[in-house]
Each structure stands twice: as structure tokens, then as C-alpha cells.
Amino acid sequence: MADADFVLCPHCGEEIRRDALACRHCGSDDSTGWSHATDYDGVDLPEEGDYEEGLEREGFRKPKTGGRNWLMAAVSLVLMLLFAAWLLRGLW
User: Fold this and answer.
1) In tens digits, what is the pLDDT along the chain, a chain of 92 residues?
2) Considering the domain boundaries, does residue 1 fall inside one?
3) What H or E segment, with its residue span, contains residue 69?
4) Do residues 4 and 15 make contact, with C-beta atoms less than 8 angstroms apart?
5) What 8-state DSSP symbol labels residue 63?
6) How many domains, the chain?
7) Residue 17, domain member (yes or no)
8) Cα angle vertex 68, ends 63, 72, to 5°?
9) Which residues pair with 7 in a beta bridge?
């Protein structure tokens, strides 16, 4: 094929066929193309450190840690002791 059959992708700069519907390197096309070079000034994207803040704004909360863990451990221990006593009762 001649070089005239190929063009450079406007998004990533790789060589693609002139009649290609999308770039095989970056997946961009004329209507939905996305790249780091695209200007997203009108979109309010969160900064990297704002993830947890964004979750809280959307109604998600961090799970509480350690609140009932001791209770679950105590209940598990009692159940294991009862089970062990039940097993030992059959041996004696």
C-alpha cells in the first residue's frame, strides 16, 4: 500500500489507515476520542487527593473500624468453647 493510504492519529500521533473508523493504538475516533491532550477545562474533575471527600459528598461513608470487632470475637470464642464441650462430652 502507498503511504497516502495512511494518516497520523490526531490524538496519539500513531500511523493509522486513512479509512479507519478508530485508532487501533489509542481507540480514539472523531466523535468520542479521548486523550491526555484533550482540554477538559469545562469539566469539574476531582483532584487526586479529593477521592474520599468526593465519596462523602456523594453520601458514602468510611466503614467504622474496631467498633464491634471485640463483640464478634467474644461470640465466636463462646461458640467454639460450646462446640468443644459438646465434642468432649461424647468422648467421656
Assistant:
1) 457 788 888 878 888 888 888 888 777 877 766 555 555 556 666 566 677 777 777 777 776 666 677 888 899 999 999 999 999 887 76
2) yes
3) helix 69-91
4) no
5) P
6) 1
7) yes
8) 125
9) 16
Its sign, for the CA torsion 23, 29, 33, 39, is positive
Show the domain range for 7.
1-33
Strand partners, 16: 7
Bridge-based pairing state of the strands 6-8 and 15-17: antiparallel
What distance in Å separates the CA atoms of residue 14 and residue 22, rounded to the nearest whole number? 12
pTM of the predicted structure, to 2 decimals: 0.33
Report d(CA 34, CA 14) in Å as an integer: 14
Residue type, 26: C
Q: Which amino acid is at 89?
A: R
* R_g over Cα of the chain: 30
Sign of CA dihedral 56, 62, 63, 65: negative
Taking a C-beta distance cutoff of 8 angstroms, is the pair 26, 32 a contact?
Answer: no
